[in-house]
Amino acid sequence: MTESIQAIDQLFLAVVQAQDGDLVETLLEQEGFVFGRLPSTGGFLRERSVTFLIGCGLEKVPTVKSLLLSAARKRVTYISTPLENAPLPFPIPAETMIGGVTLFTLDLDHYEEF
Hints:
The chain is α+β, with helices and mostly antiparallel strands. It is built from two helices and six strands. The strands form two sheets. A four-stranded antiparallel beta sheet has the order 2-3-1-6, with helices on one face.
């Protein structure tokens, strides 16, 4: 079995919500990208996330970005915040935006596959 060797010049670290993880994975597989999937948890809201490590050549950078933007969308959610100066802690739902993509791009000088 012969595999075509791709030049990997960029490494993307893409953090998406867990709800979007399966769709992102399916689209990456369909486009033939080299990637790894890691479960992660968000800091502020403690939301479940998925971190993708995606390797690609320079010519495929716009494709990766558009794929991620189409698959991972922002959502409105509500979190409970306590009412200040109240005698009893009475939570009030506050609207906040979650989701989308947090994307880090790294230039690769060298990599090895074992």
